[in-house]
Design goal:
- It is a single chain.
- With 137 residues, the chain is α/β, with parallel strands linked by helices.
- The protein is 25% helix and 34% strand.
- The chain contains 4 helices and 8 strands; from the N terminus they run E-H-E-E-E-H-E-H-E-E-E-H.
- The radius of gyration is 17 Å and the shape is globular.
Length: 137
């Protein structure tokens, strides 16, 4: 199988609110808005984020019955600190501190209005000692 593209979906009782969050804080643009189903994309990216109304006939009952989100989306950004600052200025609490990992990521977690976990990642140079210890020789 060779998928032509990738998309992730947030199932929520508040599609417009969740879509507005991604528009405002991650610069995604709405490409489809049916009220119960909203697609967002950034420019000509070959991926999209869909927002779907909980309880809609297209959503399996087991998914609609789930209350807490355990999904985690990763967004690669140029400056994790800048995004963290913008989110906190907008009143959105961060779930973790901004940290630099030895494998080459500076990142933090936040959550969207539905509770979906968002890993905001800035790629940085990995620690040479970590690379030496974790790269097969």
């Amino acid at each position: 199988m060779h998928p032509a593209a990738f998309g992730a979906t947030v199932v929520t009782s508040r599609p417009a609110e969740v879509a507005a969050f991604y528009e405002q804080h991650f610069d995604l643009q709405i490409t489809v808005d049916l009220g119960w189903f909203i697609c967002l994309r950034r420019g000509s990216a070959d991926w999209e984020l869909a927002i779907c109304l909980r309880g809609h006939e297209s959503v399996p009952a087991a998914v609609s019955a789930t209350g807490d989100s355990t999904n985690s989306f990763g967004f690669i950004v140029e400056d994790a600190d800048k995004v963290a600052h913008a989110l906190t200025e907008a009143g959105i609490g961060l779930e973790t501190e901004v940290v630099t990992e030895p494998w080459g990521q500076r990142h933090f977690y936040a959550r969207d209005p539905e509770g979906t976990w968002i890993d905001v990642i800035q790629l940085v140079a990995p620690d040479p000692a970590w690379i030496a210890a974790n790269t097969p020789s």
